[in-house]
Task: structure prediction
Amino acid sequence: MYSKTNLGAGQLSPRRKHVMATAGIAVVLGLGGLGIWASLAPNTYAGSAAGCVNVTVASSTGGATLHYCGATARSFCRTQFAAPATDQLAVHARPQCRLAGLAPKP
Result:
C-alpha cells in the first residue's frame, strides 16, 4: 500500500547516495567560493585616477559606465570641458576628469 506513494524507495545504492552527496557539496562550495570572490575582487572601474576617467551615466538599460584611459581620456575630457554647462554628460564628467588630473590648465 505504501510502496505506491514512495516511488523509488530503495533504488539509490549507497554508492549513488555518496556520489549525489559529493556533487551537492561541490556545487555548494563552488557557489560559496564564487560569492566570496565577487565580494572581495577589486573593482577596476571604482573611480577616476591616474589618467583614466570613469563616468556613470543614465542609459536605455538603466545605467552605463564610460571608461577611458590615455589619449582617449584626454580627448573625452577636452570635449566635456568645451561643452555647455547644461550638458548632463559634461556635468557628470568634469569632476571625474579633475580626479584623473585631466582638467584644463587655468
